[in-house]
Every structure is written in C-alpha cells, then in structure tokens.
Amino acid sequence: MRFTTLYCLIRISRSRAKSKFLLPVMVLLACGAAMAQIPTYNVGRPPTEAEFRTWDNLVGSKGKELPPGSGTAKEGASIFTAQCSFCHGQNGEGVYPYPRLVGGVGSLNTPTPIFTVGSRMAYVTTIWDFINRAMPPWPMPRKLSPDNVYALTAFILYKNGIIKETDAMNKATLVEVQMPNRHGFYPDPPGATPGKDGFWTPDWGLGKPVTKPAGK
Amino acid sequence: MNSKNSDRRRFLKRTAALAGLAVGSLPFVNGKALASVTPGLLNGGNGDAPAPKEGLTAEEPVIQDLLYGGRSSYETTIRSPSIGTLGATGLRTLTPLQDSIGIITPAAYHFLVQGDTHIPNIDPKTHTLMIHGMVDRPTVFTMEELKRLPSVSRVHFLECTGNSGLMHYKSLLHDMKEARKDITVIQAMHGRTSTSEWTGVPLSVLLKGVGVQKGASWIVAESGDNIHHAKSIPLAKAMDDMIVAYGQNGEALRREQGYPLRLVVPGFQGVCNVKFVRSIKVVDEAYYMQREITAYTNTKPDGMSSWYESEVGPKSIITFPSDPHKLPGRGLYQITGIAWCGRGAIGRVEVSTDNGKTWKDAVLQTPVHKKAHTRFRFDWNWDGSETVIMSRCTDEYGDVQPTMLGLAKQWGDERTPAIPASEILHWWESAPIGEFLNNPIQPWRVKPDGSVEDALYNTLLPNPYFPVPGKV
Fold first, then answer.
1. Disruptive mutation site among A2, A115, A174 for chain B (greatest number of B CBs within 10 Å)
2. Candidate from B88, B130, B344 with C-beta closest to A214
C-alpha cells in the first residue's frame, strides 16, 4: 500500500517537474527510498523523474504512452530532408545499405517482395516509437521533439499513400491509421505463454524422445 | 630513469596491442578494420580483413606480459569480420568454429552482431537497471547492488537469429567475387553462435522483488547504447530462466558483449539477448518494436510472416573436418563438432560418413548442458576416397534436426493451404528476403586430395567462384 502511494507521488512529481513542488517531492522520495527497495534484499531505489523521462517512453500498439503534440507530412518534409535523407533518401527511397521506407505495398506475395515501413509494419505506433527512441542514430538519437516525430511519421505515411499530406497526426489520429500489412503476421496476437507441451515453438514432430523429458 | 619510463610506455603500448580484443576499444578505432566491416564501405570496396592480432610474440615474455596474458605466437585464429547482409549495417564478427575446441567459446572468439558501428564504453559506476511498468515498486538497481543479489552461473549458447540462412551465402558469394580469401564457409554461414558460462542474477529474482502486478504478460527490455534496441519477451520466459548477466567465462562481459550488463535468454533467438540493458518494462502485450517486425520474422511466398518465434531448433555441425581443413592422407581421424537446441539438452548426435546412407552414434561430451553447445566426437577411418560427411542431432524430447529440404517442408506446412517444400526452397534461393532460425544438416564433401568443401549451399545457389560438384 505504501509502495502504491509512493508510486503516485512519483507520478505527481513527473507532471509538475518544473514547479516549486519538485523539491518537497524529492525530499519525500529520499525518505521513501527504503520503501522502494526490493524487500528481501534491501537493494534498489525508486526511479527519479529524469530516469522515468529517459527510460519510460516505449509506445505500444494502443498508443496509450503517446505524448501530446501534432505534425503533418507537409511539416515533416523539411525535417526529413535535414535529419533523415542522408541515409533514407530525399523521398524515403533509401541509400544503400540503409533501409528504404517507402513503396512495396502489395509486393509481399510476389517473387520480389519489397520490405519497407509502408509495406511491412503491422502497427503505426512502431514507426513513431522507433523514430522517437532511436532515430537518427548519428550523432545522437532522442533529440527530436514530439511534434517532429509526429510530423516525420506523417511524412512517411503520406509518402506511402496511407494518409493525406495535410492530415495532422497526434495522439488521437495516429492510432486510427490502419497499416496495409496489419494482418500480414501470424500468430496474431503473438502468444505470451508456451504451448501445452511446455515449448515455445511448434513441435518439430520428427522423432521419438531418446531420453525421458526432464520436466518442463 | 628516462629509458625506464620509455620502456614502460613501450611495454604498456605493446600490452594493449597484445591484449587486442580484450581491450575492446582497439579494433574499433582502427580505420582499416572499420572500413572492412562497414558494408557501406565494404561492398564495392576493399574486402580484406584486418591483419590478425598476434598473441604473445616469440620473445620470452616478461612478467608484465603475463598479467592479462596472450596466446602463443603460433596461434593465429581470429574472428572474421562479417559481410553486410541484405543492407544490414553495423559491426559483425564471426566465431571461428573451424578451430573450436570443447564447448566453451573464449570471449575473444564470441560472435558479435551490433546494429551500429558504435560500441559504447560504459562506466559500471554509472550504469543502472530500471525495472518499471506493471510492478508494485518501480526500482533502479546499480551494478554494485545487482552483484550483491543471489547469482547463478550457467552454460548457454547464443545464436544470431539469421545464422546459417541462405541470405548469408548470397553475401558470401559477393565477397568471393571481391576475391576475399580470409573467410570460410563454416565461419561465414554458421559462425554466429557461441557458448559461454554466463554469470548474473536470475531475472525472476528481480521481478519477484519489485512485485509483478496481475495481468502482466510480457516484458520489454531496452538497451542503453545508441541503437536503443527494444525487444518484447514473454513474462513466462523471464520468470523461467532468463539471466541479467555481468559475467562471461569467469570475467566481466567484454565491452562488445554488452558490458557491463546484458540479458541472456537461454535457448531463444539471439535478438532477445539485449546488450547494455538499461530498462525492463513489465507490460500486458507484445510491443511490436521495430526489430520484431522489419526483421527477425519469416516471410513465406504467400506474403504472410511468422513473428515472435523464439526457440532455436535442434542443430548440429561438424567443425572438423570442415571447409578450411585439408586431410593429409588416408587413415584415422576424429570427426568432431557441436550440437545444440533451444528446448533443452541434446540427447543424441549421429554421424554419417557415406552421404547420409548410414548413421552411427557419436560420443557426447559430458556433462551435457541444457541450451548449450554439446561437443560430439566420432572416430573415422578415411579410406581416401571422395565422400560426404554430416551430423544430425536429436534433442532430449525427440526432435530431430532436418535437412534443408525438411526445414522447407516444415515451414511450408505452417501455411494453409500448405506451401510445397520445393517452393519454399526456391523462395529462399531467389527472393530478396532474410530467413531466420535455420537449422539444416550441413554436409561436407571430402575430396580424394583431402580437401573439404561445402556440399549444401553451393548445391542450392549457382556459385561461379567455387567449383560446383553437382547436386547432392
């Protein structure tokens, strides 16, 4: 129970990071450090505001972690030229060996499938998350603002013919975007537990046990 | 005094050079080394590998030379820089399986797949692991704290998900065209697997400590290097046998292996074993991260892809004799190799010396570790005539390693309607795709002059740079 309270305090402190409220919260956190240790071994401390900001920004397919912000393909074009075109080309065509981002929709069941962001991704959030956390890798990722990431995502979607140039992408509109390859993967959703036999992959089914299975 | 100092400097410099890969930073600041392993520069450029780092020189070592140690100057085996595969970028090196001994891969020979040309040099005093998400007590651990927690040491293999795939053969053909002579088929095709004794904290200890909440079913681990690799892994696997590892083969992790902290996910495909791990978030669904979609998925000719595959199938390979070796003449040889699988222990390895007509059991090195390379040995009297040798393993649950065609059949059978094996095989040969989790039987052709060559990949794809012996 106390731990939950502490966690709420951390959350409150995040929302008021820049206010005068921060100092008392930090004091509280310091007092609470012992509480947040893992009980048996008394090690660890609660994450700081900065640590949450840096390491708690994965975005899943429901987009619930998406921050406020907005951007259109039109706005994304100039950012793309400045930040991305060195590797991905002016229009997302890719500069070998760096990945192509545009085109290939409908090619996956042909003899020459073309894997791009447009033809391949199942969820639009994957694009947003990857740009936000890991792009551009040189000289340093994670320098783009949420507005920039929304605009770049919009630019890539627009270049793939998935949205219009003026469509604004934000927390609400982004998750509404249906990727062309949404149903191109199996099993969907991926399993979080092993099969009935205790194994993660399908039975190879090619032989008989040579020794008694040692539990599982 | 001056000469003493300069001697010392010279010694330090030399020691650093001798320690070579151990120092970690050395190979990566070498411009030539970088050029030779960066595909953007390699392809169409110079394909020469960097000169092998020598071990101890032939001179009598002084005590300082022995403080970390090197090897005999007669030993020259090295990892080989890997070639770019279908536009892949980053730093890659391949384990020299052809010279492997026993089951443990020395850290200096451990394969490397880094999705970036940058390998961070992380100060362990500043490195922390944060566990958060659906937990009662989001917690940050320092390295010092992690090392105080209950630890385990376990012997496990790691294997790159793409190891042994035909995509690598296409790259190998390209390198042969560039007249690169330093690479062998066994290393280029299969050298993305290694076995180490890993030491660290079971992830289950940490997760129980922070209190996983009801409804959680996955974790997403994230790396602290510039690529910020993130991977979803089922929570059930995390609670089973995953290790947050800081030790490898009796010393700290090598820098390129994720120093100071990495995940080890026993038996699962290599991409799960997140290096430089900084964050583990407990969540209630797979997170569809970039490296779970754009690669590490297996696309079939109908355009559908399997994703979130995990366990490596039963797999074995003869490491001696293999394609760099030349048998000096007829007589007794010990055929030897390694076998492994993602489900558990290897139960049996059979060897055929007559192109698969008959099979005999090989002797397994004991103890057999679960989810680890298992050394097998088989005495063979070669009569000097041309033949094909190969190994086939069975895991403790009775799953048998398939041929390449058998693997194609298995993958075709996943689809409804089933796709014929021949069509899958043709797809691997011709389509611009990468295939993952390959475990085909690898036949080696022993020729009358004692030379050994690949008898699998060069029968599948036209190879103008090798003599083609015809289909097996």
1. A115
2. B344
Cβ atoms of residues A125 and A61 within 8 Å: yes
Pick from A181, A103, A127, A100: nearest CA to B303:
A181
- Both structure tokens of B31: 């411009």
Nearest CA-CA partner of B233 in B188, B181, B173, B273: B273
- What are the two backbone dihedrals, phi and then psi, of residue B233, each rounded to the nearest 5 degrees? -135, 135
- In total, the C-beta contacts within 8 angstroms joining chain A to chain B are 242
Question: Digits of tens for pLDDT over chain B (472 positions)?
Answer: 344 444 444 433 433 333 333 333 222 223 333 333 333 233 223 344 455 445 556 678 888 888 898 888 888 899 988 765 444 567 889 999 999 999 999 999 999 998 887 899 999 999 999 999 999 999 999 999 999 999 999 999 999 999 999 988 888 887 777 666 777 899 999 999 999 999 999 999 999 999 999 999 999 999 999 999 999 999 999 999 999 999 999 999 999 999 999 999 999 999 999 999 999 999 999 999 999 999 899 999 999 999 999 999 999 999 999 999 999 999 999 999 999 999 999 999 999 999 999 999 999 999 999 999 999 999 999 999 999 999 999 999 889 999 999 999 989 988 999 999 999 999 999 898 999 999 999 999 999 999 999 999 988 886 555 433 333 2
Candidates B289, B311, B438: best to mutate against A (most CBs of A within 10 A) is B289
Could you say which of B237, B310, B397 has the minimum Cβ distance to residue A213? B397
CA distance B299 to B307: 9
Between chains, do A109 and B301 touch, taking CB under 8 Å as contact?
yes
